[in-house]
């Protein structure tokens, strides 16, 4: 079996949740026997601060609802405990039978941005080598994919923040677009507070006056789905007022002429009509950004989760490039990655189109490099498979078996009813997790796994900083590491030797070799090197290389070293409000919950603080429908109806409704959302659904 490090209280490790990966210390609790969590004052990203999710994360360990025994669904539909050998034999035999009967792509694999780098890497290898399927994708497709695709197109490479978080504090102007960091990354606010204390300005663009927007110097309350037009309008003003950096554009970029022509259509008066942002505010924001010595634009899911998400992000990149700010000190464009390992999780082969290190599965040289490390023939590697939503759409038809590791697709994916029907239609659904969730409700096999503080591994935070999770707590008897589960099933499929690692570090060492020479090059990063510092930023091509906290100072990752402008135009969403469905519906997060809520809904303090989703509604709209806070409001889209408790607030636009997506069942916001995808990133349009109010109940 995989060798585990000895648990040790007081070691430095990291929070199990979001991409900030706050440093935490865990000590013995004086009361209930669970480890006490405190913020690590020496980790330079959170500086000792944690949000409520981090503070309560110890409650996940030793939780009474945790599953500790493998389970098989009996013919009557109830779970029964099984031995590991029985569960592995069953899964491997079923997968082999599906492969035999329908071909290798009949088995699908669904991964997660919560998995460590080692797990993400091994899961990608498991899909391609043990199962031979092209159909592997992961929930990061719902999170980061639009920003990743736009950054790759513009810069030749995608790293969430190409500069350290600490640069925020020194930026004269920061513009946050579609990012509510006060709720999603609360310890990030300390950097904005310091930036503002030093005289800097914070601009926030969002359809909701969020907790973050309330701290802004300028708040642009745009219409959902108009981010691209807003960015082009800002660039129009910069051009009109001759504030662009023509020398930078000439020396470091290509393609600006087409952008210059395209943004001529975006006079601020026209942009005001499209976005609802007054021309005066638009002009002020453009001048602040353009005249600051240092300025950055940071994007979040609000601007990315659209069927034009890639182009929207590229519009922001065009703006920042035209101002000569990418690669300049304390400046640039970055995206605030969401999931804990949203960055590393997308680098190491869980995506349908990529192999480890961001190598592309359709490029022969890339296939050959990875095949060589895996000891297989390049021709044996599958080609590009289905992206996440398309994979879920194929459940029960082209895809007959699904192996899910660390993801709750029944809640997190759009058009949830269709996903549920797909899950029910499968011949085999295997869920690897610590707790049952809405996805495992349809599973045939449940494989219980170690939790975050019970095994080691590496994560890559939103800065591209590779850090170590360490063993703090001994796992209960029963669960196994995901790594061991993959090895056991691969063994039964005839290739166990390729998955036999003595410990997690050995998996990381193979990952290093698989990424050598790749865009996301980890080959110079070792566990010892991470231990000696507060992590190492990739790319890091040799063991004596210090890592790369700051990118693009001299060249971009395209062959000619130049960044790419790309002319983009506003276009309508997959479905816009109309006479039948006249309102925008948009989704987001509470600070108490994380993604599908599979973990945080288990934590008593978090559940008590936010037990149910609430529908935010403007007072004007509420009056029209006779709604008061607490009324039960049924929202209907073209796919479903969902009833929410109303929260009447002037912080939201009068044409927009908002609800969080952390809950499943009949309270799932994603029952309403559509399956419209960005044509490049295949990102679903979570942030814009046309809906109507179909009913109101009181009492
Ligand atoms: Fe930090 Fe994110 Fe954990 Fe909160 S959830 S403590 S912000 S890593």
Overall pLDDT level: 95
Spans of at least 5 consecutive residues whose pLDDT stays below 50 are none
Shape: globular
User: What small molecules does this complex bind?
Assistant: iron/sulfur cluster
Distance between the termini: 57 Å
Number-wise, the strands total 28
Quote the CATH topology of the largest domain. Rossmann fold
What is the helix fraction of residues, given as a range?
Answer: 25-40%
| Class computed from helices, strands and strand pairing | alpha/beta
At the first level of CATH, the class of the largest domain is: Alpha Beta
CATH architecture of the largest domain: 3-Layer(aba) Sandwich
Strand fraction band?
Answer: 15-25%
Compute the CA-based radius of gyration.
Answer: 24 Å
Q: How many separate structural domains? A: 4
The main pleated sheet reads as: 7 strands, mixed
Number of helices: 23
Spatial order of the strands in the main sheet?
A: 5-4-18-17-16-6-7
Enzyme class: oxidoreductase
Domain 4Fe-4S Mo/W bis-MGD-type: 8-65
GO cellular component, one term: membrane
Keywords: 4Fe-4S, Iron, Iron-sulfur, Metal-binding, Oxidoreductase
Description:
InterPro entries: Asp_de-COase-like_dom_sf (IPR009010), MoPterin_dinucl-bd_dom (IPR006657), Mopterin_OxRdtase (IPR006656), Mopterin_OxRdtase_4Fe-4S_dom (IPR006963), Prok_molybdopt-oxidoreductase (IPR050123). Keywords: 4Fe-4S, Iron, Iron-sulfur, Metal-binding, Oxidoreductase. This is Assimilatory nitrate reductase large subunit. GO terms for molecular function: 4 iron, 4 sulfur cluster binding; metal ion binding; molybdopterin cofactor binding; NADH dehydrogenase activity. It comes from Frigoriglobus tundricola. The longest helix has 19 residues, at 84-102. The chain has four domains: 12-60, N-terminal domain of TfIIb; 71-142 and 342-537, Rossmann fold, CATH 3.40.50; 146-335, Dimethylsulfoxide Reductase, domain 2 (3-Layer(aba) Sandwich); 583-697, Barwin-like endoglucanases, CATH 2.40.40.20. The chain has a seven-stranded mixed beta sheet, with helices on one face. A six-stranded mixed beta sheet has the order 24-26-25-28-23-27. It has 699 residues and is an alpha/beta fold. Residues 15, 17-18, 20-22, 46, 50-51, 53-54, 185-187 line the site of iron/sulfur cluster.
């Amino acid at each position: 079996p995989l060798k585990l490090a000895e648990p040790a209280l007081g070691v430095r490790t990291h929070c199990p949740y979001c991409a900030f990966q706050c440093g935490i210390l865990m000590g013995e609790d004086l009361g209930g026997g669970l480890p006490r969590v405190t913020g690590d004052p020496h980790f330079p990203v959170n500086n000792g601060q944690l949000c409520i999710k981090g503070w309560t994360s110890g409650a996940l360990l030793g939780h009474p609802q945790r599953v500790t025994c493998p389970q098989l669904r009996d013919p009557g539909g109830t779970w029964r405990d099984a031995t590991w050998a029985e569960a592995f034999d069953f899964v491997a035999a079923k997968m082999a039978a599906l492969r035999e009967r329908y071909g290798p792509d009949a088995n699908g694999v669904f991964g997660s941005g919560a998995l460590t780098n080692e797990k993400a890497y091994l899961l990608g290898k498991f899909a391609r080598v043990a199962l031979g399927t092209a159909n592997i994708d992961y929930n990061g497709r719902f999170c980061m994919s639009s920003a990743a695709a736009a950054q790759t197109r513009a810069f030749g490479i995608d790293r969430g923040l190409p500069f350290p978080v600490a640069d925020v504090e020194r930026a004269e102007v920061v513009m946050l677009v579609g990012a509510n960091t006060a709720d999603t990354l609360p310890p990030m606010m300390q950097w904005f507070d310091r930036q503002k204390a030093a005289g800097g300005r914070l601009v926030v663009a969002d359809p909701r006056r969020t907790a973050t927007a309330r701290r802004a110097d300028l708040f642009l309350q745009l219409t959902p789905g108009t981010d691209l037009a807003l960015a082009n309008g800002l660039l129009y003003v910069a051009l009109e007022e001759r504030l662009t950096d023509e020398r930078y554009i000439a020396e470091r970029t290509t393609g600006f002429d087409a952008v210059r022509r395209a943004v001529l259509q975006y006079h601020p008066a026209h942009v005001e009509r499209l976005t609802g942002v007054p021309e005066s505010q638009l002009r002020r924001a453009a001048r602040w950004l353009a005249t600051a010595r240092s300025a950055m634009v940071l994007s979040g899911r609000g601007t990315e989760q659209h069927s034009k998400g890639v182009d929207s992000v590229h519009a922001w990149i065009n703006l920042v490039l035209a101002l000569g700010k990418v690669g300049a000190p304390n400046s640039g464009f970055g995206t605030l990655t969401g999931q804990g390992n949203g960055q590393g999780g997308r680098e190491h082969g869980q995506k349908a189109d990529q192999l480890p290190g961001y190598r592309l599965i359709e490029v022969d040289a890339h296939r050959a490099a990875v095949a060589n490390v895996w000891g297989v023939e390049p021709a044996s590697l599958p080609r590009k498979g289905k992206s996440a939503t398309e994979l879920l759409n194929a459940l029960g038809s082209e895809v007959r078996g699904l192996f899910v590791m660390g993801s709750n697709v029944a809640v997190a994916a759009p058009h949830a009813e269709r996903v549920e029907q797909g899950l029910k239609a499968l011949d085999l659904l295997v869920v690897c997790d610590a707790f049952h969730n809405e996805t495992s409700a349809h599973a045939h096999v449940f494989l219980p796994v170690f939790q975050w503080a019970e095994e080691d591994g590496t994560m890559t935070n939103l800065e591209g900083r590779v850090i170590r999770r360490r063993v703090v707590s001994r796992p209960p008897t029963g669960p196994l590491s995901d790594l061991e589960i993959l090895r056991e099933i691969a063994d039964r499929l005839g290739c166990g030797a390729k998955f036999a690692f003595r410990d997690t570090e050995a998996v990381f060492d193979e990952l290093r070799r698989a990424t050598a020479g790749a865009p996301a090059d980890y080959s110079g990063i070792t566990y010892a090197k991470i231990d000696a510092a507060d992590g190492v930023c990739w790319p890091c091509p040799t063991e004596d290389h210090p890592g790369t906290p700051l990118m693009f100072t001299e060249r971009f990752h395209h062959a000619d070293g130049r960044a790419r402008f790309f002319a983009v135009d506003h276009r309508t969403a997959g479905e816009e409000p109309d006479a039948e469905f006249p309102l925008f519906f948009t989704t987001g997060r509470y600070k108490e919950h994380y993604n599908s809520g599979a973990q945080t809904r288990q934590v008593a303090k978090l559940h008590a603080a936010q037990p149910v989703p609430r529908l935010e509604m403007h007072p004007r709209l509420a009056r029209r429908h006779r709604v008061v806070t607490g009324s039960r409001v049924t929202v209907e889209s073209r796919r479903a109806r969902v009833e929410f408790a109303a929260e009447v607030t002037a912080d939201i636009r009068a044409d927009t409704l908002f609800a969080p997506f952390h809950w499943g069942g009949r309270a799932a916001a994603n029952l309403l959302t559509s399956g419209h995808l960005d044509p490049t990133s295949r990102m679903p349009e979570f942030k814009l659904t046309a809906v109507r109010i179909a009913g109101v109940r009181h009492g």
